[in-house]
Design brief:
By secondary structure, the chain is an alpha+beta fold. The chain folds into two domains: about 70 residues, 2-Layer Sandwich (Uridine Diphospho-n-acetylenolpyruvylglucosamine Reductase, domain 3), CATH 3.30.465; about 100 residues, Enolase-like, domain 1 (2-Layer Sandwich), CATH 3.30.390. The chain is built from seven helices and nine strands.
Amino acid sequence: MPLLSNVRVRNVATVGGCLAHGDPHMDLPPILIALGASVTVLGPKGERSIPVAELLTGFYETQLAKNELISEVIVPPQDGKRSIYLKCTTRAAHDWPALGVAVSLTGNRDGVGEANVVISAATERAMRAEKTSTLLAGRRPSPKLFKDAGEAASGEADLIGDAQGSVPYKWQLVRVYVERALKQALDIGGALQ
């Protein structure tokens, strides 16, 4: 969290405000999607619950009506899950990431259980890589599996070019960062190399 934005923004920003903003470059949406978080939304018609994965609908767009606000963010217990968030940026406080990858999964060196791979910043909204997450579930970790997951994620994501990089550049970033995130989430490092 200390690396998010700059100190002036961190002192006044809220988690709900970050989510309501709908900016695909923000760090918290992919993390909260990977963790299975939801938000409680209040408005004149009452209260409703929305998974964060469904809250974000497009580039700076959400499901929120103009007269609604986020009153609560709920992150379910993460018993037995391993999670990590990696981003590619120059690390300057003013810099937007070219890519953010959040991974949350159950399992260990013997096998992956449930998996959530989320891609952001290189896409119009933070998005769960459904096919990639399914590819991992129930499989034994290996360098080939991680490479296949990186390939699947790069093919699944609808990448956008912007000031942080071209579509081919981001395609390569997704391949590499998904593979790295999986290795780090499972604490494997070079053990399977």
